[in-house]
Specification:
By secondary structure, this protein is mostly helical. About 35% of the residues lie in helices and about 5% in strands. The protein has a domain of about 120 residues: Orthogonal Bundle (Cytochrome Bc1 Complex, Chain D, domain 2), CATH 1.10.760.10. α3 crosses α6 and α5 crosses α6. It starts with a helix and ends in a 31-residue tail after the last helix.
């Protein structure tokens, strides 16, 4: 038993010495094939990059939406119980409790297409064809009164659809406007000419009554 234990200890001690050689080339896997990369590269950008060929009408979308989406989002995209509402909420963004839907809040139609195609239906994701997705998105647009009932959404007219809240967002410029301020050396002494108490933490009773204390 003692001899076996010594062999185990010797092997354990030798393992770290051999690790770098194995780390240089593990010999595992292979480069991904172009078709394998394409299978994962499904995202669609706001400028339409990544959209596949296809089309879908509001009429077809109504049927597909009823079969695949209505159980959670309602027959008219109005939402069921606590599941998300996809329609409605126009002119509510300036209220205390805004209703953020595809029609009232989302700035890019590509977000709707991309999310539906990659992540929906819930529990059965990526089963919708490109045409199915175009049709469902067309129906969601119709449910938000953004297109007529004879509308057909295609790759060619996709960018022609204007989302109501497309100008409701600002560019994140913190890297230019805030980061330089945050990166300045912190002041540790004599940072202000005078210091005075402007409010009292009365609930916690931590503010001294005498400012000289």
């Amino acid at each position: 038993m003692s001899k076996f234990r010594n062999l185990v200890i010797a092997a354990a001690l030798a393992a770290p010495l051999a690790a770098p050689a194995h780390a240089e080339k593990l010999g595992l896997g292979r480069p991904a094939l172009p078709e394998e990369i394409d299978a994962w590269n499904l995202d669609v950008s706001p400028d339409g990059t990544g959209l596949p060929e296809g089309s879908g009408s509001v009429a077809d979308g109504e049927t597909l939406f009823s079969e695949n989406c209505a159980v959670c989002h309602g027959e008219f995209a109005e939402g069921v119980d606590n599941w998300p509402k996809l329609a409605g909420g126009m002119d509510t963004l300036d209220r205390k409790d805004p209703l953020k839907t595809v029609g009232s809040y989302w700035p890019y139609l590509s977000t709707v297409w991309d999310y539906a195609h990659r992540s929906m239906p819930f529990g059965n994701a990526q089963t919708l064809s490109a045409d199915d997705t175009y049709a469902i998105v067309a129906y969601i647009l119709y449910s938000n009164d953004l297109v007529d009932d004879d509308f057909v959404l295609t790759k060619e007219n996709f960018l022609d659809v204007e989302m109501p809240n497309k100008d409701g967002f600002i560019v994140d410029d913190r890297a230019e406007t805030e980061y330089p301020e945050f990166s300045k050396p912190a002041c540790m002494e004599n940072c202000k000419e005078s210091v005075e108490i402007t409010a009292h933490a009365t609930v916690l009773d931590v503010t001294p009554d005498n400012q000289d204390d």
